Amino acid sequence: xxxxxxxxxxxxxxxxxxxxxxxxxxxQTAGFTGPVGAGVKETTDGAKLYIDAINAKGGVNGQKxxxxxxxxxxxxxxAAENARxxxxxxxVAAMFLxxxxxxxEAMLPLLEKYGVPLIGPSTGAMVLHQPVKKQVFNVxxxxxxxxxxxxxxxxxxxxxxxxxxYADDSFGADGVAGAQKGLTAAKLQPSVLEKFNRSKPDFAPxxxxxxxxxxxxxxxxxxxxxxxxxxxxxxxxxxxxxxVTLSNNASxxxxxxxxxxxxxxxxxxxxxxxxxxxxxxxxxxQELSKAKGTGDISPAMLEGFAAxxxxxxxxxxxxxxxxxxxxxxxxxxxxxxDIGGLEVNYSTxxxxxxxxADLSIIGSDGKFRx
Length: 370
Known about the structure:
By secondary structure, the protein is of the alpha/beta class. The chain has helices spanning 2-21, 37-56, 76-89, 101-114, 143-156, 170-185, 207-212, 224-236, 252-258, 280-292, 299-318, 324-332, and strands at residues 24-30, 65-71, 94-96, 118-119, 136-137, 162-167, 192-196, 217-221, 242-245, 266-269, 337-338, 343-344, 358-362, 368-369.
């Protein structure tokens, strides 16, 4: 009880502090701890690169942006409760860079009830694209687009025995739908199609099926640690199957967690190569990161950076004292907004954002290569 009272007192002081400094409050809930912690940190660091640079120049329309981030431990129920705190208690102008499909779905009723826009959810779930969710402004491409491209790439290499492991949740089902589209286009059937418990994955009964069918590649539609564990189980069983996973795992932290199994793993990407300065956004992110002394940028950081650029543009168009309604209207007005080599285009009937999908492979140096 004492800890709870201290937390509430701190929250009250923070609220008073926010009001006194006339800042624009933006809310975020994501799994800063738990199975996706490494990726969430990198995505948020990328967003802060741009937000900090904007704040250093005086903010947006004379107001600085304050990102209030809460840890939901990658738990959908906690994500919904965090969103409630941010929306009802903290009175944020918008939500930003949430992580996870069921987690973002869990907060949709709150967004709709209070008219709060959500910018750049870190999920490519089709459920957030079709039918269009009025309050959701996607920046990244869909998981289905990624998975479909991954199958096409494997097939172009002569790989025909393709298996799929997927988490038993809305994210997993969404990725499988995309992979199935790719398989249909290639006139193939999955050699293995198996789901597993998202919270407690067990690959012991799944891996033998890969070995028995001589599967050449396994697409894993799952988050961080589950893919690490699945890859480890495959290698321990003697399978040399090519492992492919989606861009939710496009972080340096994910590579480190793979350890000796990292080399050769393919990760789909939804943004340009993070070392390709031909894209203005990449060059800008690199320069800001160098100036800040944070080292190389990762694909996850680039996702956060892109989302922050859309957030700032929405706030800029909303004018002084941006309310939720003003930010919503401002975002809907965005047409062909260039974020640095890529265009974001929203309308009242299309909040898709970008449609960019590519592939990278983890090299022997522990970095993504394209």
